[in-house]
Design a protein that fits this description.
Layout lengths: L2 H24 L1 H25 L7 H13 L4 H22 L3 H22 L1 H8 L15
Helix pairs in contact: 2-3, 3-4
């Protein structure tokens, strides 16, 4: 299937979904129930993501938070404004980073990697990951969870 056909198929699906949403919007009871459902699912996604943020999984919590916010922004103006604010901030940081020289970018990325590895080591997560790989050394667990 070519990219053009996939794009046309996606547009047909998108139009159909918007037609269905328009039908729901016409009935105040269904509309209220739909918005409540979107709010409940979005809130649940954000709360689950907030619980997952401190876990040693690489970013799944943040992904779930932003997906929940994106879902809620389809129905709630405040969520749409917050999503635009976050997106604008991300774009500002991305453009600022792109204007840096290669040496500056490499040093910033290196500093972030050292910081992340340091936090993982201090929290003992390096020891957890090492045990998954079958490597058992007490120094992997860091000073807080050392054996």
């Amino acid at each position: 299937m070519t990219a053009t056909r996939r794009h046309q198929r996606w547009l047909r699906v998108k139009i159909r979904l918007r037609q269905e949403r328009f039908k729901v919007r016409q009935n105040p009871h269904w509309n209220r129930a739909y918005r409540a459902g979107v709010g409940a699912v979005g809130t649940l996604m954000i709360l689950c993501g907030a619980v997952m943020v401190p876990l040693p999984t690489p970013g799944f919590g943040w992904i779930l938070i932003f997906l929940g916010l994106g879902l809620m922004s389809t129905e709630f103006v405040w969520a749409k404004k917050l999503t635009h604010w976050v997106h604008r901030g991300y774009d500002m940081v991305r453009h600022w980073f792109a204007r840096r020289s290669t040496a500056e970018r490499v040093s910033m990325i290196s500093a972030l990697v050292v910081l992340a590895v340091g936090v993982l080591w201090l929290s003992g997560m390096m020891g957890t990951a090492a045990s998954w790989a079958g490597v058992e050394h007490s120094w992997w667990s860091g000073p807080i969870r050392g054996h």
